[in-house]
Amino acid sequence: MFVKSFTTALVAASLSVQSAFAQNTASNLQLAGVKANFEQADLVPAFLPTFNPSALLNVSFGGDNVEPGTPLAATAVSSAPTLTVVPASNFTSAYPQASSMFTVAMVDADIVGTDESGNQTRHWLANNVALTTGEGGAYGLNYTTDPITNYAGPGPAEGSGPHRYVLLFISQPSTFTAPNYLSQPNTPLGTFNFQNYLTSTGLGPIVAANYITVENGVATVTISSTSAVQSSTLVAAAASTTGSASSSAASSMGSASASKASSASRAASSAGSAASSAVASASATGAKSGASTLLPASLAGLVGVGALAVGLVF
Ligand SMILES: *[C@@H]1O[C@H](CO)[C@@H](O)[C@H](O)[C@H]1NC(C)=O
Ligand SMILES: *[C@@H]1O[C@H](CO)[C@@H](O)[C@H](O)[C@H]1NC(C)=O
Ligand SMILES: *[C@@H]1O[C@H](CO)[C@@H](O)[C@H](O)[C@H]1NC(C)=O
Ligand SMILES: *[C@@H]1O[C@H](CO)[C@@H](O)[C@H](O)[C@H]1NC(C)=O
After folding, report:
1. Which domain of life, per UniProt (predicted)?
2. For residue 174, what are the domain limits?
3. I need a labelling partner for 274 at 20 to 30 A (CA). Which of 122, 185, 221, 264 fits?
4. Cα–Cα–Cα angle for 221, 226, 229, nearest 5°?
5. Number of domains observed in the structure of the chain
């Protein structure tokens, strides 16, 4: 009896040490925060019909991890980021390290309000990405084949508003075959429809995702408004998505829960305020409203990226 409870106490102690000093597993609250950010930015459902992450996609452009929606200068994101996958507790059984493959993509979802049923611009596409053992319980990535599309940094056209560049970590089934038009390494940037690509290849689900915003100059288009994430709803959302697992997760968080909760709500509210300040700066320009302004903006974005691609070739 004594031995058993002593062992239990040790396990409990090591769990709390792990959660206090190293962030190697994603909490339900963090997953709910990312999901809420994607919904708030209208990436769900406009760009992704649904998104139920099983991990955090940590994105580092040579420095700190970026929180979803972080506005960054194009010069800061001109080289490919380092991606790290921080698994939730249910990740490992669904995606065993030894046998799982993934696809990594970065896609320009353009400004809030864009009709995503059209084509998007592809900024990065790598198939056959495996997991490597990273620090603690987090995973690094092993790009086992050359990318279909090499990373090409954002180059939004001046005045086209804050573009949302979505980084995606997608489950790649063993039956996956790259479609003909995207089967060769170093395929230049081009238009493609992300949802069609997923549907036609059988890729999915999206296991983790993150996004940055990059803007060139002052927006001369009207950006649809978004509402800030209500951080007070995240705890309830985190609990309700996990059923019976949530109570044990919640109690094992113990005293760490307050700081996790506040960092998730900070992330959520900072993305909310970033989006609303983008809206404020857009409306301050006195731009015309209505969907008609969106089409020139997205075309301008494509022209900008096309120019960038030419720049890369030469
Ligand atoms: C991943 O990002 C989260 C949120 O920024 C951070 O709390 C955590 O420490 C990061 N983990 C790793 C392994 O980089
Ligand atoms: C893991 O749990 C999260 C949060 O409840 C859920 O959204 C996700 O679908 C689960 N993933 C798997 C592979 O079951
Ligand atoms: C990456 O994958 C290749 C091909 O499967 C393998 O030979 C190599 O050992 C892997 N590297 C790491 C660090 O896992
Ligand atoms: C969208 O992309 C697909 C695949 O590259 C292409 O066949 C199609 O013509 C594009 N549509 C438009 C409207 O550009």
Report:
1. Eukaryota
2. 23-313
3. 122
4. 150
5. 1
Protein residue with least CA distance to atom 14, ligand 3: 132
Q: Is residue 226 part of a domain?
A: yes
Residue 245 phi/psi, 5-degree rounding, is: -65, -25
pLDDT in tens, 222-255: 887 776 666 666 666 665 543 333 333 332 222 2
Specify the pLDDT at position 238.
Answer: 64
- The enclosing domain of 183 has a CATH number of 3.90.280.10
> Rounded to a whole number, what is the distance in angstroms from the first to the last CA of the chain?
73
Compute how many other C-beta atoms are within 10 angstroms of the C-beta atom of residue 117: 9
**pLDDT digit string, tens, across residues 201-224:** 999 999 999 999 999 999 988 887
Query: Does any domain span residue 5?
Result: no
* Helices within 114-193 (DSSP H only): none
Distance from Cα 193 to the centre of ligand 4, integer Å: 7
State the pTM of this model: 0.75
